[in-house]
Specification:
- 10% of the residues lie in helices and 49% in strands.
- The protein is built from two helices and seven strands.
- It has a seven-stranded mixed beta sheet.
- Strand 4 (89-93) and strand 5 form a beta hairpin.
- The chain is globular, with a radius of gyration of 15 Å.
Length: 143
């Protein structure tokens, strides 16, 4: 039986998961990440979320990355938001196959995505190159 945290197991399977774990010393919690963009393509059932995330590794200064979260084979998704902040993210496997991503309720964005697959890629990594994103602003694109 796999004793790992389910979130660690999910992150380990993604393209940038190992790199993000190495940078921060643990899998990203996405606590206080800022959602910059949500894009859904109905034809391909693909949902993308671009997040700006800052954390610090063990004995390291804060480090900031831009991460693209990608769900394919989206079955259901629901979001509610007050601001563009994430409180945290959890993952769990569904009995019928696929997985569910839960966005913890806080003052920001919360909800869930149920999909066949999840992927995360690091788009940019640099504390200086990422411009601050306007608080509360989030671009949403549906096609």
């Amino acid at each position: 039986m796999d004793e790992r945290d389910p979130a660690d197991a999910v992150w380990a399977e993604t393209s940038s998961g190992g790199m993000l774990r190495d940078l921060f010393g643990a899998s990203p919690t996405l606590h206080d990440a800022r959602v910059r963009q949500i894009r859904f393509e109905s034809e391909t059932k693909r949902l993308e979320m671009l997040v700006d995330y800052e954390d610090e590794g063990e004995d390291l200064p804060p480090f900031r990355v831009l991460i693209r979260l990608i769900w394919s084979g989206v079955r259901r998704a629901s979001f509610s938001h007050y601001e563009n902040w994430l409180y945290g993210v959890g993952f769990r496997m569904l009995p019928e196959g696929g997985m569910r991503t839960d966005f913890d309720q806080g003052i920001g964005l919360h909800g869930f995505v149920e999909a066949d697959d999840f992927e995360a890629t690091m788009e940019q990594a640099s504390p200086k190159d990422l411009a601050d994103h306007e608080e509360g602003r989030m671009d949403i694109e549906l096609s």
